[in-house]
Give the backbone structure.
Amino acid sequence: MQSAGVGQKSTALVSATCLHIASKCEDISYIGVEDLSTRANQLFTSADLLATEELVLKGLDFFLSAATIIDFVHVYIGIYFASTDQSSIVTLCSYLAELSLYWSPWKNVPKSMIGQAIVFCAGLWMHSFEDKEGENTILAWADKFDLKLLRTCAEETISMHEWGAANAQTSTFKRYARKSHPPPVWIGLSEAMRSNWEAIKGNLNSDCT
């Protein structure tokens, strides 16, 4: 980074990357790589920023001492969606994980529990209850979770998603509105999660009631 002869693109790229890293560490809603690329008139791409971020963090021996919500989300995705196309699930879970930073009811809830509730609700969106097979699939899958947690956290997660969709002016909403089909900010996802939750919760293990 300190070598002589750094070109204009490299200087701008490193500067934007450092801004992105600082924002992720300090801001509730961080500055996304797509936004930085656009502001720089496409002098570099989002992929350039992500690659440079890795180089900068390795160069600084950067280390997070505590696991974050998104860390737990990725662990649970690997466990419960190992045989599933994970692209849409990862996008939805990442969006919900960011929303959780704004959601005051989560203030004193362990990050591992929040991550578990987020991944479970993403599964509620994925699975259809149009036939008995779909319902049996989600019921068997739900048994792998902490059922007491589901009772207290699933509805909160769905309400959080509804709140996020109603606040379309936030930078988090705008950033994720451009991702995947349907986008994770779509209010229809809340409706699907809530409908499937209502269909399943009465059939969960009695420990959940």
Summary: The chain has two domains: 8-59, 69-208.
